[in-house]
């Protein structure tokens, strides 16, 4: 039976309110994360070029290590949201605690590997003789904050699953402010140099982890959820995270291949590529905020057994993704004269970058749908399909990207290959969404 137009509009307004309420704070929290590195760079940059170069190498290693474990947030969001939808808040928080314990164990293991391996890792990344000592110092100290960083990821997933994206925003803003103050105070006030920057970041990250734990533990006590580690629950969290880990590694491989290809084209192309990639990443934050809303809302609907509601909100979020993509694409085109001079005054880089930015702008509607559907399937706990789909995408992208320099293609051709990658993702995700096989209702998948 077809719904009346008034009823359809009412449902859309309700979905819109939910999406906005979750997506806007999520975007703020996402943007706050890379600001940590920007603050460190701004403070350390005044110490000297070797220190800044060392920070660049160490920060790249740290961000790579942490990004691999982003599944702690994604898998936890889906699992907790399902139990919220099923009306079992005690089980939802219990599941969240399992994710936090897993984060602690994984973080401790990463620290145990990073501390002795720091010199080797820095050498592999090609740090110069003058930058290497600073990179090793920063990496060793900052690695002590990795358990806290992973706890933040898992706890963020818990709160998103509980339909709360405001608390992560507040914690992220507080952490950013604390990091900035600690960096200035320890680097210049205490005279600790680059080590002070690392310690400031570690302290801020630990403070964020404590803030999250206070919120989660309070919820656990309110609903009678146990806090102790549960082997079966931790194992289940790890198993749910493995497919998302494969997906994330495949996506990282795509970005690494693109950067490697650009580097082979020459200094001008790699410089332009890095600027293009930074813009692409910023746009991804905006679209990922809608995906995060999708994870939380879809998981809740499926947990409540409302498959029709899940389909309806999926359609609405796809519409949001398309519109957001068009708006972002237009903004990229209009902002080009303002954006490019912020990064370079080199006319050769400018000329190389300009057509690549047009390709990025044209691909944003595709990216909007991809990010939304990615979030929908994550919220449904459809990790195994996401893993296979991303491996297929990597297999399609790699040969095309590697052939770009062989046939004399420039940076614009490389970004068309990136657009092909997004188009393949769109096809695989759209097919899955249309099939309805992702719709599995109940408190667990």
Automatic annotation (TrEMBL):
The chain crosses the membrane at residues 19-37, 57-80, 100-121, 141-162, 169-191, 197-217, 244-263, 275-298, 318-340, 352-373, 385-407, 413-431. It comes from the Bacteria. It is a multi-pass membrane protein. Keywords: Cell membrane, Membrane, Transmembrane, Transmembrane helix, Transport. It is found in: Cell membrane. InterPro entries: DinF-like, MATE_fam, MdtK-like. The keyword Hydrolase does not apply. The keyword Transport applies. Belongs to the multi antimicrobial extrusion (MATE) (TC 2.A.66.1) family. This is MATE family efflux transporter. It comes from Streptomyces zhihengii.
